[in-house]
């Protein structure tokens, strides 16, 4: 599977999971939920998706 698809799908999935957990924890205002979800999932993806990011980077470098 193409690394760009895997990385993008992983980021979207992580955003959805983060939003769901925050909603269950009581964050109910839509705008605030969206902003906090983007921030938390962005930080989490930096740690959790490093392998996918490296694979995408290698694929891009290989195609140049």
**Per DSSP, what share of the residues sits in E-state strands of 2 or more residues?**
under 5%
The beta-strand count equals 0
Mean pLDDT: 95
Helix and strand composition category: mainly alpha
Order of helices and strands: HHH
Helix content: over 70%
Terminal Cα span: 19 Å
Number of helices: 3
Largest beta-sheet details: none
The count of domains is 1
Unreliable sequence segments:
none
Radius of gyration, whole Å: 14 Å
Shape: elongated
Structure characterization notes:
Helix content is 84%, strand content 0%. With 64 residues, it is mainly alpha-helical. The mean pLDDT is 95. The radius of gyration is 14 Å and the shape is elongated. The chain has helices spanning 3-24, 30-48, 50-62.
Relevant terms:
mainly alpha; 64 residues; single chain; 3 helices
What is the secondary structure topology, with strand pairs?
Blueprint: H1 3-24, H2 30-48, H3 50-62
Helix pairs in contact: 1-2, 1-3
Brief write-up:
By secondary structure, this protein is an all-alpha fold. The protein has helices at 3-24, 30-48, 50-62. It is elongated and about 45 Å long.
């Amino acid at each position: 599977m193409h690394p760009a698809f895997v990385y993008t799908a992983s980021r979207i999935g992580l955003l959805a999971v983060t939003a769901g957990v925050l909603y269950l924890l009581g964050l109910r205002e839509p705008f605030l939920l969206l902003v906090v979800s983007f921030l938390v999932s962005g930080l989490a993806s930096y740690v959790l998706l490093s392998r996918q990011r490296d694979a995408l980077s290698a694929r891009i470098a290989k195609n140049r």
